[in-house]
Predict the 3D structure of the following.
Amino acid sequence: MRETVLTIGKFDGVHAGHAFLLAQVASVAKERGLQPAAMTFDPHPACVVAPERAPRALISLEERCARIRALGIEEVFVLPFTQEISRLSPEEFVSQYIRGRMRARVVIVGHDFCFGYKQAGDARVLTELGGRYGFETRLVAAVKLRGLIVSTSEVRRRIESGDVSMAARLL
């Protein structure tokens, strides 16, 4: 694998906010001559760390990967989410996966990105670790549609309340 511009997330539904983020990855990768890549998880991390709160998937893993690739991402890495993965510190995750496995030179994540054991890592921690491990960190602001922040949680709320039309717009 070549060095990458990487994004990381669950990407359930691959909604409009995800599409914007993935387009940023593809654009920066093209500018820098790097491979556009995404890391996602299966199963959903909540299935491992808080099964009682785990949401049902909006789309299958296969559909998720296909949608991500359709948005210009060449390498989709599905990390099997296990108890061992859930216990990695932010630095261990960066060392083993972001720089190790994915060879990231640029990492682009959403404004609310969290990672590592008990979500101890946030954008500030990722930026700091990027300085130590040799990658640039970029944050993407929330995408809004009709005054709503586009998020998987909002899509789920709309579906549960019967507002399928707005859920479809968010997707």
In short: Helices lie at 16-32, 45-49, 61-70, 83-86, 90-101, 123-133, 152-160, 164-170.
